[in-house]
Every structure is written in C-alpha cells, then in structure tokens.
Amino acid sequence: MPSDFRIFGSELSPYSVKVRSWFRYKGLPHEWIARSPAVQAEFQKYAKLPLVPLVVTPDGAGMQDSTPIIEQLEARHPEPSIVPGDPMLAFLSALLEEYGDEWGNKWMFHYRWFYQPDAWATAERIALQMMGAMGPLAVAEARTAVAERMTGRLGFVGSSDKTRATIEASFRQVLGLLETHLAMRPYLLGGRPAMADFGLWGQLYEAATDPTPGAVMRDSSPNVMAWVRRMVSPGAEGPFEAWDGLASTLLPLLEKEVGGLFLPWSAANEAAIARDDKTFDMTLGGAAWSQTPQKYHARSLAEIRRKYKAASAAPGLAEILDRTGCLKYLAG
User: At what angle do helices 87-99 and 295-311 cross, to 10 degrees?
Assistant: First the structure.
C-alpha cells in the first residue's frame, strides 16, 4: 500500500493548486501528478467525475471537489489548524472561501479566455501538458482546439461583453481591498492560512500567471502578490487574529464584494434554477448582468447556508452579516 497521497491535478486549475497548497501547509507526504493522457487510465480508476483535483489516499480511496477534500482531511489532520477557534471567524472564513471558489472563478476564467493573448498563452500551456510528448504539431493542433472550446464556454461563468465591466471592476476592487488588508498580516485572518486563504488564493494564483490580470496585479498590488507567493507553500507564522484587529479592513470586503455582488448573484442564480430558466437577468453592482444559470452553485449556496445555520448562534456573527448585507441571503 502506498504511504503517500497522490494528487492528480493541473497547474492551470485553481482548485488543484488550492488542494496542493493545503497539503504543503500540513506537511503531508504527497505526489503531484499532472493530468495527461499518460495517466488517464489511473485517473479513471479512482475518479467519479472527469474533473481535477482527484486525491487518492494511501488506502486507495478517491476524493474529488476541493472544499470537501480539504474539510475531510482537515478533520483527520487538524494541526496546524486552518480553522479559527472563534466560531464566528470560522464561518466568515468558510464564506470567503465560497466567495473565492465561485465568484473569484469569474475573474480568473474571464481574463483567461476573454482576451486573445491570455487565451492563446493558456491554451499553449494546456496543450503542452496534454500533448507535449507527441511533438510540436500535436501541441499546435491541441492549442487551437483548446482555445476554441474554452472561449466558447465563457458564458457558463457569466463572462460576456455585457458583464465584462462588472467582472473587471470587481477584480480591481478586490485587489485594492486585499492590498490594504494584507499590508498588516501575512494571511487573511492573521498569522496562518485559513480556508478563506485557500479559496481566494487559488483563483488569484492563476490570474497572476496570465498576461492581462497578472500585469494588473504586479502593477497595483505588491502585498497581494507577496501573499500569492507565500501561499504556494504556506506556513504557520503565528496565531489567528481576533475580530477586533481584522474588522476595519475585512468588513469592506464582506460588504462590497460578498454582500454587494456575490450573494445577490447567488440568490438570483438560485431563483433562475428553481424557475428552470435558461438565462437570467439582474442588476448587479449598478450594471446589467445576464447569464446562463450555474446549477452547481445552487448546491454550494445551500451548503454555505447549512454552515451558517450551524454557526448562527456565534456571538457577533449575525450582526456582522447584517451590517455587510450578507444575512438576508444566508438566513432565508
């Protein structure tokens, strides 16, 4: 029986590098296996879905979906912890991770496939990973196919000419908010990474490797870039902070991004799925938004509501969520 975990993933998958970062933080022995045709048979042996990351445990169990992977393994390997002892902070961390996974993915995917230089650069990297062993012609053909397929999927995350300004304004806004917040601490909740870090970081790590958003980040956000580098292999540098120290710079992120954009979009997406609508339209951030509903997110919204119900009695939590416009979307 193997003694190490195996992570089947891709350097271009925010959810894959998120899980790998957690393994590095924990110091758990693991093998990183880039998904390619050469490992497809082994991948299919354990995977229920054709998605990365796939974690294969030393006892031969397959695990998929980055958040459940981390939550289940965190319960088995609790130190150094990524969960604050304060249940209020623990929930806010989970909420910010959900925001990163679901809303942050819009920034990453939009910039990666909306702009031609980014699309071609990423398609080249994917083609090399998948077809590099077969030679330059195979890579060139794969690059074209990948670029065409992925640019055609922009609508699935809501990226379009109509929503471009909202997505890009959100990206620049979150960089500004995080730049201020991270000027005073190495991680989002203090001296060690929390679930919030892993969820947000995966998306911003990918953005930092792409031409257009990477240039924005390097030009405007040195503290964010330092955090992006730190999270590649994070460490426990100190304890989590108390809310009083975090509040002044974390409240604006919760209010402007989570309560102002992510949760209103989440609720509209959920309602569209309940109506079986093919598209939905709303005003978001003062601008028109239109997209195809994302069915997976309705399930993850239900999960973050379940977590809120479990944590709702935590002192101060309801007041923070109400103040930032989040409560009405979570308590319903």
Answer: 170
Tokens of residue 10, six digits: 């891709």
103 and 194, same domain (yes or no): yes
C-alpha closest to that of 206 among 98, 112, 94: 112
**Nearest in space to 94 (alpha carbons), one of 261, 283, 260, 321:** 321
In whole angstroms, give the CA distance from residue 140 to residue 131. 9
User: Which residue, of 29, 51, 76, is where some domain finishes?
Assistant: 76
Q: Are 255 and 174 in contact (CB under 8 A)?
A: no
Residue whose tokens read 């082994």? 42
- DSSP H or E segment with residue 62: strand 62-64
CA distance 281 to 266: 12
In a domain, 121, yes or no: no
Domain annotation covers residue 71: yes
Asked if the structure places residue 123 within a domain, the reply is no
147 vs 145: CA distance, rounded Å? 6
pLDDT tens-digit series, residues 11-60:
999 999 999 999 999 999 999 999 988 899 999 999 999 999 999 999 99
The CATH number of the domain holding residue 58 is 3.40.30.10
SS (H, E, C) 20-55: HHHHHHHCCCEEEEECCHHHHHHHHHHCCCCCCCEE
Give the CA-trace dihedral at 291, 95, 247, 198, to 10 degrees: -100
What distance in Å separates the CA atoms of residue 143 and residue 119, rounded to the nearest whole number? Answer: 10
The whole domain housing 29 covers 5-76
Left if phi > 0, otherwise alpha if psi is -120 to 50, otherwise beta: which for 187?
beta
Same domain, yes or no, for 255 and 321?
yes
Tell me if the pTM is above 0.90.
Answer: yes
Do 233 and 273 share a domain, yes or no? yes
**Environment class of 216 (CB within 10 Å of its CB; exposed 0-12, middle 13-18, buried 19+):** middle
Instruction: Render pLDDT for 166-183 as a digit per residue (tens, 0 to 9).
Output: 999 999 999 999 999 999
Looking at the structure of the chain, the number of domains it has is: 2
